[in-house]
Amino acid sequence: MCAAPEFQSNFDVCIIGGGVVGLAGGILLRRQGFNVTVLERDATLQTVRIQLHPNAVKVLQEVGVFEKMMAKSIVPSSIVLKAYNTGQVLHKQDLREPARKYGAPLLTLHRAHLRQVLYDEAVAIGVKVRHGIKINVDGVDLANGTLRLADSAETIRADLFIGADGGESVVRSALMGYKPKAVPHGKLVHRILIKEQDILARPHLRYLLEEPNIIVWLGPECEAVTYGLDGTFNIAFTWPYSKRAEDIFYGAQTVDLDEFRAKLGAWEPDLREILSLGTDCLRWMFFEPQVDDDKTRWVDDKGRFCIVGDAAHRGLPYLGQGAAAGIESVATLAHVLGKAQNKQQIRTALDIYQRLRKERTGHVIRATLKTGELWQMPDGPVKDERDRQFLHETPTVGYPNPLADPFFQEWLWGFDATKTANAAWEKYWDSKDKAQT
């Protein structure tokens, strides 16, 4: 790492949350010359499987973990959309050409593997990481710019605190002055893991594993997303659920898999047969995403606290952008902070970050909701028209697979955090210079 400029080398950043976003941000900020400490609540790594789209992978190339990450990833060849009842292939999107175009592939991998790779890199370049650290909302002292730990009398001081502490963020609650209300989305996801060897033992099902594809069955008010990873066939089955507040639950719940399979009598026999090979099923609840306006603060008045990732813009998985949006945000934040040469400019950098990311993540959240509507249409003439477009039209604006829409795809996967931060920083100072002349 190059020698740090004097300002950055005397500026302490504390990141609350040691997940993918927090660790990636720690690396990027350390490379900008800042002193960085990451506080993580958990002592163990999650094993959830995730997709990383090209816009996120490009950032991780910059972070310097791409080769190590690739060693534990699968590069899908295509996204295949199928009719839920017949199994007819409605659309097949080749992912190899976009990988060449944007200089980064779409990947599937274990979140725990990615976190481990990021953790190793962070520690290697001098980021301090502390585990088992609990923080309550009353420990976030906006007035004095300090952080009091929940299980000890320790108070942490830093020049900037970054809340990367997820959808139940205590930093967000402190900034807003209250805990945001969880609003049910009316859907949940069932996750079932099947051994690939059990699928391969049935010759008529082997076609599902011949290529490393992401296969999505599009159902009425639901969908099933599947892909292989590390000898396991992963199924994420989005399903309708109550919107009543009294039915809210947090974390994972065990599901009777036989009971769930019994609801799928109209679905393609191959998918139902695959599900019969499973033994366990867990489900998680989805909550309604919120697009924040200018009144909702991501940065405190003194410029000592800010939020990033799910703490700022928690979304839904229908577009595969949950992790990607957070990685984009923390990369933008790191690059714009790296341009500051004094504390007053840090505040300017935070304002630029907040403006840039509120606008873009708002669009991503809306596009995600639209994708859910398009892919989970109820049976009827509107769905039939959608299927006709899939089968007979060339992807363009308004195509029912937004990831294949060449214009939207360019906007989504072609994002460059460094260029965006540089351009916004230069535009701000140019406009300020013009205003003074």
How are the secondary structure elements laid out?
Elements: H1 6-9, E1 12-16, H2 20-31, E2 35-39, E3 49-52, H3 54-63, H4 66-70, E4 78-83, E5 89-94, H5 96-102, E6 107-110, H6 111-124, E7 128-130, E8 140-141, E9 146-148, E10 155-157, E11 160-163, H7 170-176, E12 184-195, H8 196-200, E13 214-219, E14 222-229, E15 232-240, E16 253-254, H9 257-261, H10 269-276, E17 282-287, E18 305-307, H11 310-313, H12 322-337, H13 343-375, H14 381-392, H15 406-413, H16 417-436
Parallel strand pairs: 1-2, 1-11, 2-7, 4-13, 11-18
Antiparallel strand pairs: 3-6, 4-5, 8-9, 9-10, 12-15, 12-17, 13-14, 14-15, 16-17
Helix pairs in contact: 2-6, 2-12, 3-12, 12-13, 12-16, 13-16
Describe the structure.
This protein is α/β, with parallel strands linked by helices and 437 residues long. The protein contains 16 helices and 18 strands. The strands form four sheets. The chain has an eight-stranded mixed beta sheet. Strands 7-2-1-11-18 form a five-stranded parallel beta sheet. Strands 8-9-10 form a three-stranded antiparallel beta sheet. A hairpin with a 2-residue loop joins strand 13 (214-219) and strand 14. The longest helix is centred in the last third of the chain and has 33 residues, at 343-375. The chain is globular. The mean pLDDT is 94.
